[in-house]
Amino acid sequence: MKEHERCHRLNNAYDETLDKVKSAPAHHSLTTGHRIAWNDITILKSLPSKAHLDLTEQAAIHIRNPSMNRTDSAPKYSSLWNPILPKIAATLKPTPSGITFSSS
Q1: For residue 10, what are the domain limits?
Q2: pTM beyond 0.70, yes or no
Q3: CA nearest 2: which of 23, 31, 19?
Q4: What contacts 61, CB < 8 A, 6 or more positions away?
Q5: Separation of alpha carbons 58 and 53, rounded Å
Q6: Each residue of 57-87: pLDDT tens digit?
Q7: What's the angle, vertex CA 8, arms to CA 16 and CA 46, rounded to 5?
């Protein structure tokens, strides 16, 4: 979250040289004016490696289908993982109160 907050604070959420969003939460906040409570963030899961983190993020996106998430830039995995994504997502902490996700 520090990386996302830093991109927001420095107004550096978009890399024009690569034509790529570096931080989706910061970009969303900067382009819409929506405020993010950077000091009130809930970490859903801490993991030992980027591979674990990427797969767990994919599971959370797949199961929760958050309307704000830019799934085009999310890590991509084979659909062979789909049967176990609910099991991975079940290991996440509950959704923080006040945050809603679109229903699928």
Answers
A1: 2-32
A2: no
A3: 23
A4: 69, 71, 74
A5: 9
A6: 777 777 776 655 555 555 667 778 788 888 8
A7: 105
